[in-house]
Amino acid sequence: MNVTGQSAVFGRRKEPHTVIIARGNEIRHFTIRPWLAAFIGSGLAAIAIGYLLATSYLVLRDDLIGATTARQARMQQAYEDRISALRAQVDRITSRQLLDQQLMETKVSELLQRQTQLSQRHGRLGPLFERAENDVGTVPAEDPAATAKPDKRADVTGSINQPAQTYAVAGLGADLGTADTRPFSLWSTRTDPLPSDSAADRADKLFVSINQSLKSIENDQLSRISTLADNAYKSADAIQQALQAAGLPVDSDFGKNESDVGGPLIPLDSSMIFDSKVKELDEALDTLDQLKKEARRLPLANPAPGHSVTSPFGVRTDPLLGTAALHSGMDFRAPIGMAAKVTAPGIVTKAGWNGGYGRMVEVDHGNGFATRYGHLSEIDVTVGEKLDAGAIIGKTGSSGRSTGPHLHYEVRHNGEAIDPLRFLTVGRKVAQYL
């Protein structure tokens, strides 16, 4: 077999390759076109590459499978780690929510406890305020825990006596997201929440506002109690000073020197402070009651209010003899038939004619004090009869040693006549406290 090839000598043209096959007397020749050669070469190259790839696959198959398995394992591990992280995050959120709920329930319980405490305090303060109104004469407008006032704490005070509001407080722990729309009266006392505030932030602001309002109520209660106690002590002091200035006996330990005191400092909590203030108010009212009772037993009232004095106590010219004589009482101008009233509670010891007194009534007021009412035209009481202050003992007149209708009034201590003006002066001073 001979293979001959011709190539172009001149220019770019190439002659096709001719393959001549000689077999005996037969001669065959083939002309190989360039495209055919390229096709055959490509086929051979493809077969070679495929063979190489197949050989490589067979050789590297285990490594490829291992790499794929490892990649899948890494991906699975990554997914599992992500799931674990998400679960941990969910657990943290759940725990945080549980802690927030527990904290919320604790705060609500504290608020309800303080609210109950304020209600109980109001129950204790009610009788004290009534007593103070009777004793001192003035009492603070109303306990803040009982009456709503048109100020910042109006809704706070109203919630104490309204059970519906209590349930609104308890409901805060259930749904924080709608806390600002719940019908709880204290919500109006807080500042408006910012758009960026969360439900927990709004709830915290709510609790702060509630605590401030309740604290304000407690302080207001303590302040009012202290004011009442101070007023009671001042009233008792005024009564005592008036009695002592007139030389009248005062059987009371009030006003004792309290400067010589001492002891360790022991801080008090709010409940102890409240109890201490209430005890102080009780003691002040007891002191005031004691002094009032002592003062009311004394003949301090005017036996003839609105009527002028015609003859005072002391030495005077006797109206019948014209000589100097001791006038043991005071004479009040009074028409015949005017009601004569006793100036203090007591027991009638004399009721009848008594010499120059004419018709006379004598009343024993205890502690050695007694009063006499002379020149009466009529006696309306009997010996041994118990009288209240202001009771009518008879009617004025001009019986006995008298120059005209009037009321002769005497005050005696252990049988000795005392100037009634001292008692009348004290009576005017302490009348506002009695």
Characterise this structure.
The protein is an alpha+beta fold and 434 residues long. Helices cover 47% and strands 18% of the residues. The protein is built from six helices and 15 strands. The strands form three sheets. Strands 4, 7, 8, 9, 10, 11, 12, 13, 14 and 15 form a ten-stranded antiparallel beta sheet that branches. Strands 1-2-3 form a three-stranded antiparallel beta sheet. Helix 1 packs parallel to helix 4, helix 1 runs parallel beside helix 5 (270-297) and helix 4 runs parallel beside helix 5 (270-297). It is rod-shaped and about 210 Å long. The termini are far apart. The model is unreliable at 1-10, 138-191 and 255-259 (pLDDT under 50).
Structure summarized in a few sentences:
With 434 residues, the protein is of the alpha+beta class. It has helices spanning 34-135, 154-160, 163-170, 199-245, 270-297, 420-430, and strands at residues 2-4, 17-23, 26-32, 309-311, 314-317, 324-327, 330-333, 339-341, 346-353, 359-366, 369-379, 386-387, 392-396, 406-413, 416-418. The protein starts with a strand and ends with a helix.
State the main characteristics.
single chain; 434 residues; alpha+beta; 10-stranded antiparallel sheet; 15 strands; 18% strand; disordered N terminus
